[in-house]
Amino acid sequence: MKTIEEINLHNVKKILAEKKIPEFYPGDVVKVGVRITEGKKERIQYFEGVCIAKKSRDLNSSFTVRKISFGEGVERTFPLYGTLIDSIKVIRSGKVRRAKLYYLRDRTGKSARIAEKIRKKIGIDVEVKPEAVTEENVAPVVETPKEEAPAAEAAPTTEAPKEETPVTEAPKDEQKSEGSSEKK
Hints:
Blueprint: H1 4-18, E1 29-38, E2 41-55, E3 62-69, E4 72-79, E5 85-92, H2 172-183
Antiparallel strand pairs: 1-2, 1-5, 2-3, 3-4
């Protein structure tokens, strides 16, 4: 005979196979799409607010979302695996240090704000392979022959053409010592 916990776990796996529920925590701003039936018509109404509590109890899991509507605080508790929920979307992650954010009920304005958690991705998602250097990959170096200047521009000069030498920077230690000797 199966226990109630085994039946609940089986049902949770079955529900998760059908619809995707994102991972979210208290402090996150979530947008919950709720199915509303009006007569014969069915529509989806979105309820967006801060998740202030989350209860994890297998099939009986639920979460509470709070929003301010026309200056009045509105809280709504949703069953996580309920049939009324069409979709859950995490808008932004909040940086909080508590599991239950009931203290937000007493606060309004700036004091009710929650800082955003910045998540860092570690690792490289795209696999990059270094290319082997071959004759096809390397751009050929083309030497351009010196062309004669047109007669109108050419004027007899006695100067020899100047060769450009690459300027190399002196190491930082030498630059500092030169700068200090100039100040003295």
